[in-house]
């Protein structure tokens, strides 16, 4: 630590146990107005820099420290850090909260504070990122106006400061430790503050969260992501996920980490009870996202196809929770980031046992391209597909399937391979079972990705023993193996409207004479238009040659002209209607 001699204005380095010192809190002036480390020469008083406004800050800090507090040393950030050295700058930023804590007194000079008391809450000092820790950390804080006249202590201004910043008097006076404050509340304190450099909005909060991390100027918004990752390593407080992006579209999907402290401006999470920080949910940071071991819940009202992750905090308005949407095998993203959920109750999902005390991952960040394709990589199966005599018996990988919403999710960042095992309602022999292979092929840049479906007799596919091995080996081996099977039907479709989910309905083929036993064909519905029609992969010529086939279509239960809505309400799900495929169809 480098300190200024309050008599001579000379700098001296202290490697450990520095002497008692005063410390300055201020907002930097325009470029060229401050005195930097390399300009602190021995004849400073006769140097041209003595005419700068920043020189007066140094002199007044030293004069008050010496004359009022009998201190021989002082610290001013402009000249006590050699910012030409990235190593020294990083060390100083990581140590700064402690330096303010250990100072005998802190002088906060507010250069836009005049004689009018109403100018105090409007001061620029309350809007800057770095001054947040300078407000909280010091044992003693004194305010000075533009003329360097003392205007009172932090204690004397306590109620006004609490009103301006939202920081309680117990925190300001040190009666309540920062680690006892929910993460979302501390983030709220910084939500309206700004910094000159984008990365500093993260670096200035390290002391508030007792975090140390490297300074990487140039990383931009990644700095705040790194800060949250470090916080997650240190605290089990789920309120870190309780942010709101008021600019987000209602149907938007995002990662679970906030992009900036401004996402914590909502006062709901800022007013969390202090005694409510005890957490029971286990979560950690991984290279697949944030890993949770917890139960997901269904909200008490319309979930819009989402599940709920409780944040283990409760306000007067209800339990705090966020919406999640499944996008792949045991993988979720944040849904409806423009709002949190405050409900009188949330209940554990009972119809989907894999969601109770399960391990799953939530993506930390979501690229715009990923957000766009989430809905195109989801297949919805009608809830009443067993009406044609087959029931869903098994799924691989199981984490990609939601029995609550009857959807298969392929993720968003790579190819996907899975299968659904169907068997007849009556009888479980191999002849009465089929495997529907679902392969989402990610194409090269410029090409459109597509779903590929293959229907395979159960007897021709030794599924359980072979699936994992071929799945792990990748797409080429999987496709090669699948081509060796007895494929009943292969269909490849390109992207549909991204805002409407695909639907798979099952069509039964009747036995007739020498025809083989009942089989399942796949009819893929893409809900681009407000009514449903059979897709053109059903060849009319084939229909005429096989008049004993039965065909069904999906329709809405109340209005067959209404587009399919993405909802968990079972009454709104489509159902199968038998079609008369006669001449002229």
TrEMBL record:
InterPro entries: DUF8212, HET. Residues 222-251 form the DUF8212 domain. Residues 559-585 are annotated as: Disordered. Residues 21-115 form the Heterokaryon incompatibility domain. It holds the Pfam family HET. PANTHER family: HET DOMAIN-CONTAINING PROTEIN. This is Uncharacterized protein. The lineage of its organism: Eukaryota, Fungi, Dikarya, Ascomycota, Pezizomycotina.
């Amino acid at each position: 630590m480098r300190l200024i001699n309050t008599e001579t204005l000379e700098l001296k380095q202290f490697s450990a146990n520095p002497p008692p010192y005063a410390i300055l809190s201020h907002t930097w002036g325009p470029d060229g107005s401050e005195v930097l480390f390399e300009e602190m020469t021995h004849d400073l008083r006769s140097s041209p820099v003595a005419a700068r406004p920043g020189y007066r800050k140094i002199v007044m800090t030293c004069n008050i420290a010496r004359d009022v507090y009998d201190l021989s040393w002082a610290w001013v950030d402009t000249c006590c850090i050699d910012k030409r050295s990235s190593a020294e700058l990083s060390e100083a930023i990581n140590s700064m909260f402690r330096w303010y804590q250990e100072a005998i007194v802190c002088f906060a000079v507010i250069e836009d504070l005049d004689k009018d008391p109403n100018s105090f809450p409007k001061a620029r000092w309350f809007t800057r990122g770095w001054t947040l820790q300078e407000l909280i950390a010091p044992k003693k804080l004194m305010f000075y106006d533009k003329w360097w006249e003392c205007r009172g202590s932090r204690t004397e201004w306590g109620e006004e400061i609490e009103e301006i910043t939202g920081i309680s008097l117990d925190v300001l006076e040190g009666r309540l430790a920062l680690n006892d404050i929910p993460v979302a509340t501390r983030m709220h304190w910084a939500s309206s503050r700004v910094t000159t450099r984008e990365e500093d909005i993260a670096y200035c909060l390290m002391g508030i969260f007792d975090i140390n991390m490297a300074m990487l100027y140039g990383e931009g918004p990644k700095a705040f992501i790194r800060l949250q990752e470090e916080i997650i390593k240190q605290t089990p407080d789920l309120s870190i996920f309780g942010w709101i992006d008021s600019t987000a579209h209602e149907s938007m999907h995002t990662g679970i980490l906030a992009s900036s402290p401004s996402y914590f401006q909502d006062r709901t999470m800022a007013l969390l009870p202090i005694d409510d920080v005890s957490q029971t949910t286990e979560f950690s940071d991984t290279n697949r996202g944030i890993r949770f071991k917890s139960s997901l819940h269904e909200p008490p009202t319309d979930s819009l196809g989402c599940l709920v992750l409780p944040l283990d905090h409760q306000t007067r308005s209800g339990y705090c929770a966020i919406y999640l949407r499944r996008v792949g095998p045991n993988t979720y993203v944040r849904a409806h980031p423009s709002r949190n959920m405050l409900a009188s109750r949330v209940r554990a999902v009972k119809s989907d046992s894999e969601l109770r005390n399960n391990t799953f991952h939530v993506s930390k960040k979501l690229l715009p391209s990923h957000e766009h394709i989430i809905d195109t990589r989801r297949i919805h199966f009608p809830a009443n597909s067993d009406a044609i005599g087959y029931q869903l018996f098994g799924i691989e990988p199981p984490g990609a399937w939601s029995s609550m919403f009857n959807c298969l999710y392929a993720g968003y960042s790579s190819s996907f391979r899975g299968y659904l095992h169907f068997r007849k309602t009556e009888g479980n022999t191999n002849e009465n079972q089929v495997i529907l292979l679902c392969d989402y092929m990610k194409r090269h840049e410029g090409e459109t990705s597509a779903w590929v479906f293959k229907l395979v007799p159960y007897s021709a596919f030794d599924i359980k023993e072979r699936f994992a091995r071929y799945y792990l080996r990748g797409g080429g081996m999987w496709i090669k193996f699948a081509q060796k099977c007895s494929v009943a039907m292969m269909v490849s479709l390109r992207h549909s409207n991204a805002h409407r989910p695909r639907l798979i309905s099952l069509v039964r083929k009747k036995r007739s004479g020498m025809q083989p036993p009942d089989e399942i064909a796949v009819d893929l519905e893409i809900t681009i238009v407000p009514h449903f029609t059979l897709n053109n992969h059903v060849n009319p010529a084939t229909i005429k040659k096989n008049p004993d086939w039965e065909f069904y279509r999906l329709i809405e239960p109340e209005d067959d002209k209404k587009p399919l809505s993405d909802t968990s309400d079972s009454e709104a799900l489509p159902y199968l209607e038998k079609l008369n495929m006669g001449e002229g169809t």
